[in-house]
Amino acid sequence: MTLLLVLLSIALLVVLIVWAKLNPFLAFLISSITAGFLLGLPPDQIAGSVQKGMGDLLGDLVIVIVMGAMLGKLVAESGAAQRIAGFLMKIFGEKRITWAMALTGLIVGIPLFYNVGFVLLVPLAFTVAYQYRISAVYVGIPLLAALSVTHGFLPPHPSPAALVAQFGANMGLTLFYGFIVTIPTVIIAGPLFAKLLKNVKAEPLKTFQAEIKPEDQLPGIGNSLFTALLPVFLLVGTTALSLQAGENLTFGPLIKFISNPGVVMIVSVLYATFSLGLLRGFKMKGLMDRYTDATKDIAMILLIVAGAGALKQIFTDTGVSQTIAEGLKSWDVHPLVLAWTITAIIRVCVGSATVAGLTTAGIIAPLVTTMNVDPNLLVLAIGAGSLMFSHFNDAGFWMYKEFFNVSIKDTIKTWSVMETLVAVVGLLGVLILDIFI
Hints:
This protein is an all-alpha fold. It contains 21 helices and no strands. It is a multi-pass membrane protein.
């Protein structure tokens, strides 16, 4: 009966978002309160549980997500992303153009949130397609596959960062494992899949052509690459140091402080402020205005994350986790496959990768200690499931269709299939990694 009530709560969330077109944050709040009543939580405790869940989750993530948005904004507007794309195109040449676009999406997609990366890089892909007189879909799919994978798998993107916090995983290790899974996933769903799309017709609208900056206005390639990837260097490097330091009383506490994801992101943004900003003639006020705009762009993401935390806390406070744990013991399904399946189903129903991932986390998080599974791999399995088969209820589906100006049929054959490949190959990569960890 308890499991049925949980499913009803999640079904309500899906209906509110898909049918009623309610804002996901409001949908999470309504579903959380409803779940509290259905599951027998005393009415005077429901509001407190909702507030605690929101506060606990956001407390770990606000700095990471906000600083990530600021860094991405500056990487985009300074021309660093354009410089990286142009540099990779020169290295790979026309014959390996899809590999160049995939690597561009991977590098630039780490600090950029998906929607920002899409709007910034897709016009660059159109310019490349026009220059070499080839299909924009053939050029664009590898780029979008890489952006999609970074969005679903790699911190500091909102969903994987939130999952790390909920599961008590290590952000540096998650990032390291994520790269191991990301590379083959991007290759298969990007350049290899794109070989089948050379003849897909696309006529991108002139409105979406990139405004290319002159070469002399772009930052150097070394500066662009180092600044864009600094969070990765710091997260992986400090995690390795903290593992080596262990309980060292002299350096252990200091390394632990430096390896904190929030500290890493603050350092990265401060460095970018000078390297891509002040040292290149930007005024401090202009930079701060850009940072303000960046926080506006991700305000709703923060609220959705908070709403997911509220639902998770309701499930925890009502003791649902123990009941579900007992029920799952009889399922002869690998925990990583189970988490991926739940996420994929919610993703197909709701359309939002972030909502799908965080909703699943609310169910799975309390069970991590009983599932005998690496929490870092659990983050990646859910991240893969959250990208499953994008279709009509996903904003990304329509962004792709309108930007590339292709038919609904071709959108499903290219975009939807690419997202499905990312989800399936990502899961296979996680399961293989699980054998060796």
